C-alpha cells in the first residue's frame, strides 16, 4: 500500500515538474516577446528606425511562439491518448 | 526470435556502455578539464577586476580574440542543427548515427560562443542594458535575437528526438531513474505518441534551417554593415554561412573520430560515414575557396586605397603568415586529402578536419584584426598581440566544450538508439521503394 502511495505521489511530483518545465518555457518566450515589444517602443519613442524594429519582431516573435507551441503540442500529445495504451519503446 | 532480440541487445549495448560504465579515463578527463576551467574562471575574474587593459586590445584594434572566438564558435554550431536537419530532410539514411552528435555540438558551442561578447564587454553587468536600452537598429541586437532564437530551436531540436532514448534509460532502471522519467515526458512508444513526435520533429527540421542560416548571416552583418575596408562587402552573409558549415562539418568529424576511438563505436560510425562527410567537407572547401577568391578579386580590381592597405597587410604584410596559413589549411590540405580515395582514410579525414578547424579560426582572425589594424584615418597601423588572459579564456572555452560533451555522453546515448533501430527495421524496405520510384518504368500503383 505504502509503495503504491509513494509511486502515485512520485508520479504526481514528476508530472508537476514536467508541467512546470513547460510553463517555464512559456515564461521565457513571453519574456522575450515583451523584451522585443519594449525595444520597438523605445525605437518609436526615439524615432530610431522603428520600421526595422517592427520588421525584426514580426520574424522573431513568431519563431519563439512556434517553438513553445511545438513543445506544448508534444507534451499534451504524449499525455493525452498514449498513457493507457502501453507498448514498448520503438525497436523493442 | 529470442536469438534475434538477444543479438540486437548485444549489438546496441555499446551505445549504453558510456552511460553505465565509468572508467578511470573519465574521471581523469573531467578532473583535468575542471582544473583548466577553474583557472580560466580565476583569470576572467582578474580581467573583470583590472579591466580590459589586461588584454591585447587597444586603439585602433578594439576587437580581438573574444570576437574572433565568438564568430568561430557560433560558426561551428552550424555543424549540428544544419547538417542534422538537412540530412533528415533529404532522408539520407546514413545520417542516423551522426545526427545527435551534431546536435549536441550545436547546443554546447552556441552557449560558449554566445558568452564571448560578454567577455569582450569588460563589465559583464552592462549586458543587462540589452534588455533595458537595446537598439534594434543595431546589428548587435539582431545578433542577440537570432542567436537566442537559434539556441532555443537547437535545444528543442536536440531534446525532442532524444525522448525515446531517455524512455529506454528510464525503463532500464539503475541510476537516476527519476531524472529520465522527468525528461521522458510520459513516452511509452504508442502509435499516437510516435505520430506526435514525428510531426514535431518534421516541423522543427524545416524551421531550424532558415534560423541557422540567418544566425551566421546576421553575425556577418556586424562587420559588413560597417564601412570598414575589408568588412563592407555584400558577399559576407553567404561567405560566413559557407564558412560556418565548413567548420561545422570539420568539428563534427573530429568529434565522431574521437568517440569512435574512445567508445569503440566502429559498428556504428563506419568508414562510409566519414567518406560521405569527407565529400561534403571537400565540396565546402571548394565553395569556401570560391567565395574567398571572389572577395579578394573584387577588392583588388577596385583598388580602393584603404581596401588595398588591408589586402596588402594580409597578403604580404604582418598577417601574411596567418592569411596564407588559412589558405593552406582550408584549401590545399583538405583538397589534397579528400579528393583522392587513397588518402581518404579516417586518419586522413582527421588531419583534413583539424586543418580546416585551424584554418577557419585563422579566417576569423584574418577578418577581424587586419581591418581594424589599418584605420582609414591618418593613424599608424595597429598591432595586436593577444595576452595570456585571452589565450587562457580561449583554452578555457575549448575545455568547456569538451567537458560539456563528455558529461552529455555520460548521461545520454551519443548515438540515437531508436533511430538506429528504426533504420534496421524499416529503412531498407523504404529506401528500396523510394529508389524503384525514381527509376524509369510504369507509374507506381499508389500514385
From TrEMBL, chain A:
Q: Does the keyword Membrane apply?
A: yes
- What keywords does the record list, in alphabetical order? Membrane, Transmembrane, Transmembrane helix
Domain of life of the source: Bacteria
Q: Where are the transmembrane segments?
A: 20-42, 54-76
Protein's UniProt name: Uncharacterized protein
Automatic annotation (TrEMBL), chain B:
Primary localization class, coarse:
membrane
* Record's keyword terms, sorted: Cell membrane, Membrane, Transmembrane, Transmembrane helix
Q: Which Pfam families match?
A: NrfD (PF03916)
Q: Say if the entry is tagged with keyword Transmembrane.
A: yes
GO CC term, one of those recorded: plasma membrane
InterPro entries for this protein: NrfD-like
Q: How does it sit in the membrane?
A: Multi-pass membrane protein
So where does this one cross the membrane? Answer: 25-45, 65-89, 101-119, 139-160, 203-223, 235-259, 271-291, 311-337, 349-373, 393-415
UniProt keyword annotation of Methyltransferase present: no
Q: Where in the cell is it found?
A: Cell membrane
Q: Which family does it belong to?
A: Belongs to the NrfD family.
The entry's protein name is: Polysulfide reductase
Amino acid at each position: 500500500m505504502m509503495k503504491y502511495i509513494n509511486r502515485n505521489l512520485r508520479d504526481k511530483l514528476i508530472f508537476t515538474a514536467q508541467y512546470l518545465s513547460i510553463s517555464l518555457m512559456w515564461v521565457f518566450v513571453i519574456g522575450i516577446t515583451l523584451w522585443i515589444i519594449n525595444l520597438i517602443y523605445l525605437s518609436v519613442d526615439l524615432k530610431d528606425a522603428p520600421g526595422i524594429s517592427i520588421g525584426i519582431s514580426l520574424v522573431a516573435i513568431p519563431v519563439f511562439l512556434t517553438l513553445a507551441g511545438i513543445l506544448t503540442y508534444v507534451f499534451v500529445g504524449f499525455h493525452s491518448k498514449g498513457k493507457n495504451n502501453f507498448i514498448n519503446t520503438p525497436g523493442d | 526470435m529470442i536469438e534475434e532480440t538477444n543479438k540486437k541487445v548485444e549489438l546496441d549495448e555499446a551505445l549504453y556502455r558510456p552511460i553505465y560504465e565509468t572508467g578511470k579515463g573519465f574521471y581523469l578527463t573531467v578532473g583535468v578539464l575542471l582544473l583548466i576551467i577553474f583557472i580560466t574562471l580565476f583569470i576572467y575574474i582578474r580581467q573583470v577586476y583590472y579591466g580590459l587593459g589586461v588584454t591585447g586590445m587597444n586603439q585602433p584594434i578594439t576587437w580581438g580574440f573574444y570576437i574572433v572566438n565568438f564568430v568561430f564558435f557560433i560558426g561551428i554550431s552550424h555543424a549540428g542543427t544544419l547538417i542534422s536537419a538537412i540530412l533528415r530532410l533529404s532522408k539520407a539514411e546514413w545520417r542516423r548515427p551522426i545526427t545527435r552528435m551534431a546536435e549536441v555540438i550545436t547546443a554546447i558551442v552556441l552557449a560558449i560562443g554566445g558568452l564571448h561578447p560578454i567577455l569582450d564587454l569588460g563589465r559583464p553587468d552592462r549586458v543587462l542594458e540589452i534588455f533595458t536600452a537595446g537598439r534594434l537598429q543595431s546589428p548587435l541586437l539582431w545578433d542577440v535575437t537570432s542567436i537566442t532564437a537559434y539556441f532555443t530551436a537547437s535545444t528543442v531540436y536536440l531534446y525532442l528526438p532524444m525522448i525515446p532514448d531517455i524512455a529506454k534509460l528510464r525503463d532500464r532502471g539503475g541510476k537516476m531513474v527519476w531524472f529520465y522519467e522527468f525528461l521522458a515526458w510520459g513516452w511509452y512508444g504508442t502509435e499516437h505518441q510516435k505520430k506526435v513526435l514525428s510531426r514535431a520533429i518534421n516541423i522543427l527540421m524545416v524551421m531550424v534551417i532558415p534560423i541557422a542560416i540567418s544566425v551566421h548571416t546576421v553575425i556577418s552583418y556586424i562587420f559588413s554593415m560597417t564601412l570598414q575596408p575589408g568588412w563592407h562587402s555584400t558577399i559576407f552573409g553567404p561567405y560566413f554561412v559557407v564558412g560556418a558549415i565548413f567548420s561545422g562539418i570539420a568539428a563534427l568529424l573530429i568529434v565522431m573520430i574521437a568517440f569512435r576511438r574512445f567508445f569503440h563505436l566502429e559498428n556504428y560510425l563506419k568508414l562510409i560515414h566519414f567518406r560521405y562527410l569527407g565529400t561534403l567537407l571537400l565540396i565546402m572547401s571548394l565553395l569556401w575557396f570560391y567565395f574567398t577568391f571572389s572577395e579578394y578579386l573584387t577588392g583588388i580590381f577596385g583598388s580602393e586605397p584603404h581596401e588595398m592597405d588591408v589586402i596588402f597587410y594580409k597578403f604580404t604584410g604582418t598577417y601574411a603568415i596567418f592569411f596564407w596559413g588559412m589558405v593552406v589549411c582550408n584549401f590545399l590540405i583538405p583538397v589534397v586529402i579528400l579528393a583522392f580515395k587513397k588518402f581518404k582514410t579516417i586518419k586522413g579525414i582527421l588531419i583534413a578536419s583539424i586543418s580546416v578547424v585551424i584554418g577557419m579560426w585563422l579566417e576569423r582572425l584574418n577578418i577581424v584584426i587586419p581591418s581594424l589594424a589599418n584605420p582609414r584615418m591618418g593613424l599608424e597601423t595597429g598591432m595586436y598581440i593577444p595576452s595570456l588572459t585571452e589565450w587562457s579564456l580561449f583554452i578555457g572555452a575549448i575545455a568547456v566544450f569538451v567537458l560539456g560533451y563528455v558529461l552529455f555522453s555520460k548521461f545520454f546515448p551519443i548515438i540515437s538508439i531508436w533511430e538506429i533501430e528504426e533504420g534496421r527495421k524499416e529503412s531498407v524496405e523504404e529506401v528500396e521503394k523510394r529508389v524503384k520510384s525514381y527509376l524509369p518504368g510504369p507509374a507506381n500503383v499508389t500514385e
